[in-house]
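Onboarding guide, step 5: your first structure request.
Type a short instruction followed by the sequence, for example:

Predict the 3D structure of this protein.
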Amino acid sequence: MIFFNSFLFPLPFYLLLIISSFFLLPSATFAQQAPDYTKSFVESSKSWIEVDYAGDNIIGHKLDIFLPKEGKGPFPVIINIYGSAFFSNSSKGTIFQSGLGQSLLKAGYAVVSINHRSSKDAIWPAQIQDVKAAIRFIRANATIFSLSPGFIGITGFSSGGHLSASAGTSNFKNTIEINGKFADLEGSVGKFLQTPSHVDAVVDWFGPTDFLSMDICGSTMKHDDPKSPESSLIGAPIQENKELTQLANPMSFVNPKSAPFLIFHGDKDPLVPHCQSEKLTATLKSKGISTELVLVAGGGHGPGVMIDTYFTQMIRFFDAQRAKRTLLVIDGQIAIDQEINKINPDKISSMNVLKGDMATKAYGKSGEFGVIELVLKK
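The system replies with C-alpha cells like these:
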C-alpha cells in the first residue's frame, strides 16, 4: 500500500485501447478541443493507492481512497466505478479524467475508486460481487481511513453506471433466480462477509440496464452480437440466453430497500440508448423508490452530460440524501449498521442528540446533518 499526504498530481492514463469497445471513457475525453488539465489532477489531503480490498493481490481487486483537501473527517463516502464495457480490470484512475472524482472531493466527499474483474477475467456475477466486496471493505475499515460508514453512496458511468445501479437496486438482496437460473449477487470475495454491502444513494451516468432491448431502442453498436460487451459479460449470446441476461439486469433486483436514484442520460447517446435509463426509472418508480431521470437534450455518451452543471446536481442529490439521515454513534464509534430501530431500547444507557455546529465539530463532514449518540449498558 502506498500513502501520500497533501498532494497535487496528474494520474497516469489508465485506459486500455480496446478498439471493439466505446465505453472506456466518455468520448468528450478524446474530442475536447482545449482540454482542461486541472480536471485530471487529484487534489486531496491524503490518499491510499492500490489497496487490496479482497486480500488476493489481483489487479481487479484494488481500490484507491482520496480524502478531501478541506474539512474534518470522518468523511461521507462515494464509491466510483469506471466505464469500460466490462472489458477492463484496471481503469479506476479514469474517474478523474472527466472531473467526476474531483467534483466530489471539492464537495467534501471521500472518493473511493475501485477496480473490478473484467468479463475476460470472469463472467457475471463476478463484477457485482467485486463491487459489494469493496463496499464491505470500506464499511468495515472506515475508521482506519477517516471515512464514515454512516453514508456510502455510489456513482459510475456507462458500464460503471450499470454496476452502480446494480449495487443500489440489490440492497439487501443477496441472490436472484429467474426461471430456474440463479445468480449469487453478494458472493464471498474478501474477508468481511458479515459486513453489510448496501449503499445509501446512487448516481447512474448512462448505464445500460436491459441488454435485450438495446438494439431495438437504437444504437450504433450491435449489442446482440455474440462478441458484444453484454454477451461477453454473461458468457453467451444475450438473445439466445435471455434468462441469464436478465440475471444481469439491475431492474431484476429492485426491492423495497433499493437506494434512491439520480440518473443522467443524453438523448443522443449513440452507444447506450436512453431507453435504458427510462426503463430503469419506470421500474424504480413503480416499486416506490425515489428516482429522478435527467434526460439531457443533445447529450451523447459523455459529451454534454458529464459536465459541471450535472456534477453540481449530483452533489446536491447526495447532500439531500444525507440530510434525510441522522448519524448514529454507539459507544463512541460510528455504527456500521445505521438502523437505530434495530437496537433494543432496554440496552440503551443514555442518548444524546447533537445538531448544527456541535455535530460538525464532533464528527466532521459526516455529522453536519445531526448525530444521535448512544451509550449501551455494559
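Each response can be followed by summary notes, for example: Residues 308-323 form the longest helix (16 residues).
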